[in-house]
Each structure stands twice: as structure tokens, then as C-alpha cells.
Amino acid sequence: MINANEEVLHPRSIRSFVKRSGRITTGQIKARQEIGADFLIAYTPTVLDLPQAFKFSDDPNSPVVFEIGFGMGEATAAIAQTLTHTNFLCCEVHDPGVGALLKRVGEFNIKNIRIIQHDAVQVLEHMIAPASLEGVHIFFPDPWHKKKHNKRRLIQAPFVEALMTKVRIGGYIHCATDWEAYAVQMLEVLSGAQNLKNTSEDPSGYAAKPHYRPLTKFENRGLKLGHGVWDLVFTKDH
């Protein structure tokens, strides 16, 4: 989850993640020590040279997808292994999540992931060049389910508008949530963006789960309990 306090992209009152403590394992610490130098990118308020950042991947010039808030990295690692001709620039603020994804990167020899442990709003604003991204993944962001907290949700029109300036024409945004009220808001916001087109042909407006997004253990448990999951995939058409 990310901090959306920046005035340029979001009203200052919005905060889209809660800083949580968590246990960092010995394996995660070891992964940081052994491969962190190659896969962690420090935040700087300057535009990132993407081919240089991915110089150790199979193709530094592959399209780049920006992932916001990857949790413990289970889905991110699986997607990177499926979409091998795409590079993934991933933001997460929590130490255990970053450590867990680094551990997976090392265990499975995943070359097309880079991680920035920083507020993704600031990364987006300062480090990503206009029209440089192939797509954006935002999976299961904090739903802020209490009505009085809905204004803190990440997917709001000003943020999406700013986000889309970083995506090339023909690129996409893929959001997923297991909170129906947030799915409704996501659909409304994305449908209201002038330069986005819904890829779904279903009357509901929601997309079938794309093949590359795996079902996580948490998601599987929810589905077995009858909980819904909603995917939204929109492309930038101008």
C-alpha cells in the first residue's frame, strides 16, 4: 500500500497506507544482503533511466509495468515469471514485503523485477518519465472500508489522471479488489477518465481475471467463503 499525501497527485488529506510493523525473517535479511544491491533501487527525485535500471534483466529495453503495493510479493513474482518479456518496477513501503519479494527473486532467479521501497506517489511524480510505462498494476489496495475513510482510497480521479500521464498510448491500467464497494468506485473513476477505454465486454464493466494474475492463497480462501473479486482493465486510447 502506498502513501498518497502528495498535493500534486492527491489531496494532502489522503493517506492510502497504514505503516505496519512486521516480522523480518532471517531469509529476508539474507536476500537483502546478497542481492539487494542489484534489485533494490534507491528513491531519488530525478527521472529514472529504465534501461539502466534493468541492465541485469534479459532485455533492459522490454516494456515496463509499474506495480503499486505488492504486499508480500507472491503474485508479483508469479506474474514476472509468466510475463518474461516485461520488466516490473515495483513499489512497497513495508520491510517484510520487500524482503519476501527479494527472497523469491533470488530463489527463482527472477531477473525482470526491480523494487523501490518508497512512497509510490513520490516515485511516480519524480522518477517516472511521461509516457514511459506499458502499464500499471494495483492489486488489492487498502479499501478503507469505513464510509468516513472512503476519501482516503487511492483510486480517485486526480490520481488516475496523473498516473495516466506516465503510461504510453495503448498501455493499460489493471486494478483488482475484493471489496465490492471499492470495485464500484474504481469502475466509476476509470470509466470517467477521458483517455481510458474499458476492455471488458461484460455488461457489468468488470473484466475476467487476466491469465497472468494468479490467485493468491488469501484470495483463494476468500473465494471459497463466497467472497467476490473484481478485476478492471482499461487501456489508454489517446
Summarize the topology.
Elements (H helix, E strand, L loop, with lengths): L25 H14 L10 H4 L10 E5 L5 H9 L4 E5 L3 H14 L4 E4 L3 H8 L5 E7 L17 H8 L2 E11 L2 H13 L3 E3 L18 H8 L5 E7 L2
Parallel strand pairs: 1-2, 1-4, 2-3, 4-5
Antiparallel strand pairs: 5-7, 6-7
Helix pairs in contact: 1-4
Defining traits:
238 residues, alpha/beta, Rossmann fold, seven-stranded mixed sheet, 8 helices, 18% strand, disordered N terminus
CATH class: Alpha Beta
| CATH architecture annotation name | 3-Layer(aba) Sandwich
Number of strands: 7
Q: End-to-end span in angstroms?
A: 28 Å
What structural class do the secondary elements suggest?
Answer: alpha/beta
Low-confidence stretches: 1-17
In the residues, how many domains can be counted? 1
Could you tell me the strand content as a percent range?
Answer: 15-25%
The biggest beta sheet reads: 7 strands, mixed
For this structure, what is the CATH homologous superfamily? Vaccinia Virus protein VP39
Helix content estimate: 25-40%
The shape is: globular
Radius of gyration: 17 Å
Order of helices and strands: HHEHEHEHEHEHEHE
Say what the CATH topology is. Rossmann fold
